[in-house]
Amino acid sequence: MARIAIIGGGISGLSAAYYLSKSLKSTPAKIVLIEAGKQFGGWMESSRFDDGTVFEHGPRSLRGVKSEAGYASLLLAEEIGLESKILSVKKEHPASKYRYIYAKDQLCLMPTGPGDLIKKIPPFTRPLAAFGWKEPFRKSVKLHDESIHDFITRRFGEEIATYAFSAMFRGIYAGDTRKLSIKSCLRPVFDMEQQHGSIIRGAIFGKRTKTEIPKSPLVERFRSEGWSLWSFQGGLQTFPETIASKLKEDPNIELHLNTVCADLGFTVDNKANLKYNGKEEVFDHVISTIPSGDLASLMSKQHSSMATDLNRIPLASVGVVNLQFEGDRLPIQALGHLVPFCEPDRVLGILYDSCSFPGHGTLDRPTTRLSVMMGGAWFEDHFGPVDQYSDDELTEVALKATRDQLGIKEKPFRVISKVAKRGIPQYNVGHSDIVDSVFSYAESKKFPLTILGACYKGISLNDCILNSRNTMKSLGEQMTQ
Ligand SMILES: Cc1cc2nc3c(=O)[nH]c(=O)nc-3n(C[C@H](O)[C@H](O)[C@H](O)COP(=O)(O)OP(=O)(O)OC[C@H]3O[C@@H](n4cnc5c(N)ncnc54)[C@H](O)[C@@H]3O)c2cc1C
């Protein structure tokens, strides 16, 4: 019987185990999943309180998108029987419609429809259409890669890059658009300029790849109700917990918690040697789903050049302060607001969790839940070395931001501050070259190794699940041939 190890029990590792066992059904194999932490889920961590409150410390929702990746997460949730536990944010909800940025000392509502493009809305000095109309006539440049900031400045002007795009990418990557790669973070937009000479022309005349809509009652519900975001009763952690309990039902799958994989090497006869729990074991194949820096540490002794490349993918630490206030304190109903990098504040943005997911609130009375995000690409500049930050300082910064930006002066009755240390991979300029180099090195050496996880080909939960599903389907097919 083939023996396969999966290192890491975050969403990538768990979904890899789930899809690999499914794809190997006719050829039973032993799958051993090794997770260093005390619970499964990686960054997906929710705190649940007796009064019904749920706080998210990592990701807080899955994005409802009509793409292969968006459908992959829905299908997985459906297959493991979670459809009745889904909490969705429908298209008419304020958290779907309204997004703000905080700039020039005010909350600025971003356009909600085409009509807003011809109005002058703060913080912009002209109507957005005035930045856009010249774009199709601007000279295009043949590029290998460029920062998002330079790319958007070239196409639409610096104001759009500085306010709209920097805020958006502080929200998604906790990253700095002056470093993040347009090619790796916004590939379709990059391709539009390369193929059509302009983004607007590309959007109008470009060929649309049709996404196949899976036949599934949950996908149908998602499409007809138009969810923009979704989560679960009990928080996002319900997802990895349920996948893990499904995996436990399979006698061919072994799950280990509190177990660090300490070393990984490859033998001349194409096997993998894994050191964990103080013992060394031989596997026919290994699937790594751990962050790039952790994989680099495992590989550095035998394959230092691959480790050097892996270490070139930076990971940003993100501070998340969850606050809960008595009563309804929000001055506006929306998903939240983001703060562009040109503002002096130390926060990346504030998410209005009680607006998006009222189902994660107290059962007996109204309360307001906020998540204040900070640090990211600026963590060390703002808070010092990530192993020496102070929780009190993070909380102080969060409370000042809620006071200054939302006018909430009351004291919260519940506060939890945590830092996702090296939590979000930064796909900086040149990222795709690093990934190519890592993957082609492993391939050229014919390592029995598959590399998955958020550090390479998409950071969202949807991307991680799709990547694990598709890669495990091919691996399963190869192994059953
Ligand atoms: C604060 C924050 C907010 C986010 N918000 C969102 C959001 O709202 N929506 C969204 O779609 N995405 C969001 N993301 C991104 C998304 O959560 C992550 O990209 C995704 O969870 C990564 O999953 P993963 O399994 O690839 O990696 P991880 O979650 O990092 O899992 C890797 C696992 O490997 C384990 N491990 C590491 N080294 C070893 C070792 N040597 N031996 C054994 N185990 C090891 C770790 O303990 C960990 O459990 C957010 C991320 C963060 C940090």
UniProtKB/TrEMBL annotation:
The lineage of its organism: Eukaryota, Metazoa, Spiralia, Lophotrochozoa, Annelida. Its cofactor is FAD. GO terms for molecular function: oxygen-dependent protoporphyrinogen oxidase activity. NCBIfam families: proto_IX_ox. It comes from the Eukaryota. Residues 11-416 form the Amine oxidase domain. This is Protoporphyrinogen oxidase. GO terms for cellular component: mitochondrial inner membrane.
